Amino acid sequence: VWDIDTFQCIKTLSGHADVVTSLVHCNGYLFSSSLDCTIKVWFATERQNWEVIYTRKEENGVLALCGMNDAETKPVFFCPCNDKIVRLYELPSFSEKGRIFSKREVRVIERGPKNLFFTGDASDALTVWKWRLKPQEGSTSGS
Predict the structure, then answer these.
(1) What is the pLDDT of residues 66-109, one digit of tens each?
(2) Is 45 a domain residue?
(3) Domain assignment of residue 137, yes or no
(4) Domain count along the chain
């Protein structure tokens, strides 16, 4: 934790057993990922002590994190791992929503405008994706 006025480190958070690969702050929570195969959710107490309130174990090292809303404006968390799969989790439950498969490890994910998002992977590929609304159950389309 850095003091933005003095640029001095005022606190170090410890909790991962390997390299920390990503940090995302959202709605008062801090999400961290690591090559130790975990995602940790941190929350600041009244005394500004950050504590781990949830740890999610993955089978592979986590390379990055990115949160955004899907086409239905539901919060989704992207978790690319070093097995070349990006897992999509619904928040706050962390239930799996889907997967994106890549030729190489996805190193970065960024939100874009109008339901777009972007991935960059270790094969030097930049891919543009677009969320699609699910068809309504029981509805039909036609002419």
Answers:
(1) 998 888 888 999 999 999 999 999 988 999 999 999 999 999 99
(2) yes
(3) no
(4) 1
